[in-house]
Amino acid sequence: MPRKTYRQAINEALDCEMARDDTVIVIGEDIAGGAGGSGEDDAYGGVLGVTKGLVGKYGRARVIDTPITESAIMGAAAGAASTGLRPVAELMFVDFLGVCFDQIFNQAAKFRYMFGGKARTPLVIRSMIGAGMSAAAQHSQALHPIFTHIPGLKVVMPSNAYDAKGLLIQAIRDDDPVIFLEHKALYDTQAEVPDEAYAIPFGEAEFVTEGDDVTIVAFSAMVARAKAVAEELERDGIEVELIDPRTTSPLDEEAILESVERTGRLVVVDEGSPRCGMAADIAALVASKGFAHLKAPVAMVTPPHTPVPFAPNLEAAYLPSNERIAAAVRSVLGETVPAE
Amino acid sequence: MAELTALTMPKWGLSMEEGTLASWHLAEGDAVSEGAEIADIETSKLLNTLEARSPGTLLRLVAQEGETLPCGALIAVLGEAGTDAEAVEAFIASFEAVEPDATEADEASAPAFRTAEVDGLTLRYAEAGAGAETVLLLHGFGGDSGNWMFVSEDLARDHRVIALDLPGHGGSDKALPGDGSLEDIAALVRGFIAGEGLGAVHLVGHSVGGAVAERVAASCEARSLTLIAPLLPGCALNRAYIADFTEAKRKRELREVLTRLVADAEAISRDMVEDVLRYKRLDGVAEALARLGEVAGDIADADPRAPAMPALAIWGEADRIIPPPSGGKVGKGSTVEIVAGAGHLPHLERAAETARLVRANIAGERP
Fold first, then answer.
1. Interchain pair A198, B282: CB under 8 A
2. How many H helices and E strands in chain A?
3. CB distance B282–A194 less than 8 Å?
4. Cβ count near A288 (within 10 Å)
5. Reported confidence tier of residue A51, pLDDT bands at 50, 70, 90
6. Which of A166, A183, B67, B238 has its CB 3.0 to 4.6 Å from that of A200, i.e. a possible disulfide?
7. What is the ipTM metric for this complex?
C-alpha cells in the first residue's frame, strides 16, 4: 500500500469527496492560491499546501479564496451548510478562531437543536493546532477542549495520515458541524494510506498498542510520543495499552473504561492546557465511572498553565516530553521516580 | 570446499517485508530431508512453517527464536555434515541479504500485482511463477489474493499462478458485476480467463471462491478443480459468521469474529484484524459484502448437488464456518481430504499440507 504524508492524506480526502459530491466546497484564505486577487492560481494551496491542486480540478466556484476575515468565512460556511452545500472551511491557525465563536458556538452548533431536528449543518471546519514549530503563543495553541465543551460540535484530532483521510471523509459526510484539528507537526509524517475512499466512524478509539499494565490515553501529536515511550517501556517488561480516542466529541468512553478495568492504571497525555482540559476530563470520567478499578491515582501529563513559549528550548520544555510520559507511567506503577 | 546453502527469511506474499522466527523445529547438527519442517515463522498475518527444499545437515542456526528479520536475511546454514566451522563462519560473514524478488534468478517466480479490465470492472491479481499451465486461485468472502501467500510460492515453482481479487475485494473494484449473483461473478471470472488468454486453467477456490470456481468449471474448460472448504449447494453454512463479519466495526469485535475462522485463536494477529478492518471501511465494501452474504445464503439454501466436474475438496477438521460434509463426500468422482489442526483456512493454517494436496490434484494424482 502506498505511503503518504498527513498532508497528502487530507488533500486526498478533500479530492475524493469533491469528486463524489458536487455540493462539497472548500472556502478559506489562500486555499486557491491567489486570495481572490491577481495572484497565480494554486501557488500555495493554503498556508501549508493542503488544498493544492483542488482549484485546478474543481474551479473557483468550489474552491473559494477569501480575504482575511475569519468571522465572515465561518458565517458564510455555516449559512452555506444550512442551505444545502457541504462546506469545508479552512481557518489556518486555531488560535484565530476566537473571532468566530458566535458563528460556531452560538449558531452552527445549535441549528439542529433549536430547529427541532429539522435543520442540518454539514459543515467542516479545518484548522491547525499545536506547538513544536516555534510559531509562538498566537500560532501554537491546542484549543480542542474549548470545542469539545460545546454541545452540538463534533471534534476530530487525527494522529496519523491513515486516520486523517478516513476521519476527514467521515467529517464531510456528517450532517453536523465538525471541528477537524490538524496538528502542524504531523503534516510530513507518513503512513500507509489507501488510494480509495474510506470512512472511519467517530467515537471509535484506536488501540495503538495493547497491554495489561497501564493505560495511556493520548491525543493527536502526543500519540506518537506515547507510542515511543510504550516501545521503550516494553523493553523493561512494562506493557502499555495506548489508546488514541481520535475524536474528543464523541468520546469513546467505553474503550477507555474497559482498558482501565483491565490495567487499573491510567496516564493521560495531552497538549492542551491542564485546566478544564481533556486530561482532566478523562481523569474525571475514570474517577466517576471506573474508580473501583484504579490501583493508583490517575496521572496527567500536560503543559504548564502558561501561553506557549516562542523560544525553542522553552517550547520543548513546555510540551509533554517522552521522559515525563515515561516517568508518569513508572509513577502509577509504583516505581520511585526522581523529581524533575 | 563443500557447498553451503543459505536458508533465508522467506517472502510469503507481496506485502511481507519481515518475519519473526517463532521457533526452530530442528537443532544444529540435525539431518534435514527435503520437505522437513525447519522453523515456524510468524508473519503479520499468521504463523507458517518453513520447509526444507533440499536435503543436508543443519550446520548453523543464525537467527535466534523471537528475532525479527527482513525477508531475505540469513537465518541458517545448510550443508554437508562435518563441514569446517571456519568455512561456515566465512560463509555467514560474506552473505549478503537480498530480497527474494530482487534477484535475476528469481525474477520469473517473483510475484507482482497486475490489473485487468473485464466488463467495465478493474480486477487486480497477483501473478507468480511461470509454466505451460496456469493455476487460478479464488479467495473467499472478505478475503483477497493475499490469503494464498503461503501456498502460491510453492505452486509457483512449476506453474504460472494467478491469485485474483474477486470484485468487492482486495484491490479490485468494489462494485459487483450485474446483480452480484454467483453466475454474474462466475461470468466475470470466465471473462478474465478469456481476456488474459489463460486457456484451460487449474481452478482452486476457497469458500465463496470455491462456489465461484465450481460455477466457472461448469461452463468453461478447466484442467482440474480443487475446492477448499467450499460453499457448495446445501452446505451447512454458519450464517451467523457472515452476518457478524459484515456488521463488525470495532477491532475487538472483529477479532472475535475472525477467530472463528481458525482452529487456534492465537493465530489471528493484530495486523490481520487491522487489515480486515481497513478493508471493510473502504467505500463500496459494505454493500458488496451484504450482497455476497445474501448470495452465500442462497447457495446454502439450494438443493445439494455434486460439483460440475470431479474435484478434490479439502477441509480443515475444525471448520466452524462450513463444516466438512457429514457423509465425507461432495459427489461422485470427487474426493474429500480432511486436514488436521485447521479450521476454515487450511491454506493458511496448514499451508504445506494443503499445498501438497493441491499439487497432487493438479498433477492428476488425487490422494
1. yes
2. 12, 14
3. yes
4. 8
5. very high
6. A166
7. 0.91
